[in-house]
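Entry type: protein chain
Record version: 2
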Amino acid sequence: MTLVPATLGRSERTCTTGGFVLTEAVYEPRAVLPRHRHALACATFAVSGSFAETIGTTTVQCDAFDVVVKPPAEAHSDAYGAGGTRCLLIEVEPARLASLGPLFDRWTRLRRDAVAPLASRLYREMRNADDSWALAVESLVLEIVVAGTRAATSRRPPRWLRDARAFVDENWSRKLTLADIAASVAVHPANVVRAFRSHLRCSPGEYVRKLRVEHACIALAESERGIAAIALDSGFYDQSHFAGVFKRHVGMTPSEYRARTRPPCGGGLLARRAG
């Protein structure tokens, strides 16, 4: 998978300060970007509209001023909201990244209560034209890094959650119960629900559903199999059930998704957008 430019949206402005490159970009309604990578570590948030970002089998829904951070070259895909989305992308140059601690070591959505007000202020400052904007912007980016790091370290997930998640990752295609998941890590089912909600921002059932939708997305984009067969293989009761769940998660029907992600003759979607 090749690296792509800083943004695959329509870039409206870019500015640089203190080792940070900030780009404001606009995405068309319901735009879908298949898996791709960016060269630099980055933080991204919508300033209007929303987007869903997927890495591996995990998808997070991001409303305005929800901040997602990624390490360099992390493969991910994005689906943008029905009303179009305006985003701010903050890239971190390698020399600056070394001084920022562990925040960009892994992909995560930062705690909204810790960083959303700072993200809103940052966007306003970026659009100012006075002679202090560069200092204000750099300071606010650093405040987001500090607030995000403190919030992440103050709420570490229990050690067993990684094993519970791995169990679900390996067994999503069969009919799982909450008791199955709890038994796999020898904890009470209520603790499983609480940990999933607190640290993965979804219930165990929602997590299973996301895995099934992710599997279906890959099959729709990369195979010639019929939609009904993909629905059954992805753990859904039938094609109707699959279509309803898929549209709630992705914002379009399976047929629409397949049509948008299939590469046309002469090159794929990424090649056309990145060219």
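Comment: Confidence is low (pLDDT under 50) at residues 1-5, 265-275.
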